[in-house]
Amino acid sequence: MAEGVAKLLGCPFCEDCVAKIKATSELKSVYDYQERLEKLKDAYSVQTAKTAGRAILLIDDLYRSGATLEAVTGALRTDGKVGKILALTFTRTRSNR
Q1: Cβ of 78: how many Cβ atoms within 10 Å?
Q2: Of 9, 49, 51, 87, which sees the most CB atoms within 10 A?
Q3: Distances (CA, A) of 18 to 47, 51, 56, 76, 93
Q4: Which helix (H) or strand (E) holds 6?
Q5: Cβ–Cβ contacts within 10 Å for residue 97, how many?
Q6: 71 exposure class (CB count in 10 Å sphere: 0-12, 13-18, 19+)
């Protein structure tokens, strides 16, 4: 999906700029935002050489609480030294709390 969007926009695509490096339990039954963030803490690694100073379009297939996007953008900002981050999601789930 992300590669197709990059082609449409005429932008480079980097599949390995961000990688999940820590196994995390499934988040769908975790409703507390802070608990979700804690489970995702230090879960992502960034290829700084590929991201430093660049504008990044971060694409996610599903938006629920925003915790995953927050964890990834945090890694991009600190480890990746990214200049600008834009996020695009395709689906938003309804809350069943």
Answers
A1: 11
A2: 51
A3: 6, 9, 11, 8, 24
A4: helix 2-9
A5: 4
A6: buried
Q: What distance in Å separates the CA atoms of residue 70 and residue 36, rounded to the nearest whole number?
A: 10
The residue written with tokens 């030294």 in the block is: 81
Bridge partners, residue 57, by sequence: 86
Q: How far is CA 66 from CA 13, 54, 72, 88, in A?
A: 23, 22, 10, 11
Structure tokens at 47: 């290829």
d(CA 68, CA 24): 11
| The pLDDT value given to residue 95 | 60
Asked if 34 contacts 65 with a C-beta cutoff of 8 angstroms, the reply is: no
Q: What is the mean pLDDT of residues 30-52?
A: 95
Region 16-34: what's the mean pLDDT? Answer: 92
Q: Whole-prediction pTM value?
A: 0.85
pLDDT of 53-93, one tens digit each?
999 999 988 888 899 999 999 999 999 999 999 999 988 77
